[in-house]
Automatic annotation (TrEMBL):
<dbReference type="InterPro" id="IPR001810">
    <property type="entry name" value="F-box_dom"/>
</dbReference>
<protein>
    <recommendedName>
        <fullName>F-box domain-containing protein</fullName>
    </recommendedName>
</protein>
<feature type="domain" description="F-box">
    <location>
        <begin position="3"/>
        <end position="49"/>
    </location>
</feature>
Amino acid sequence: MSPFPLLRLPGVVLCEVFKSLSIGEKIKLSVCSNKTSIQINIARLYSQKVIVDLGCLSHKIKVHSEKNKEAFEIFIYPDHWNRPNSNIQKCSIACCSVRVMSAGIGIETFWKNYREGFLSFVRHLLKMFQCKISASRKVIQTDDGSKKATIELGQHYIEMSVTPIE
């Protein structure tokens, strides 16, 4: 059977297809190609609202619906594991070439370093969904009007731009 030409569907129909996908299906589809990711980002306004839990100590990002009906987990690992595995595929996430493997109710991603992986995937999710972000560690938000927050990761910190949810 030949592959289905999903991206050749008319925009309105494609938007309906994306609306019908689960959180996990959207995330998995978005890492398939830059083109697919862009189309999912365009349909963001029609996307369900999700909560992104930053599990800094467990090296995990959990994306779930507001009522916790569906959840998807993204594990971030350093890419120094050179274990041969036919299930690992090269994908593009936030302009980075990353190895990805399906795992249970989520995916495992392998990055140059933990910080790059965490920050890149959070950026990727922010483009796809209307998000609320919660962190299992301390979040320090600036008062200087710069709209930046720093997430403490034990020995490391991640700084990111934020917009308060009202």
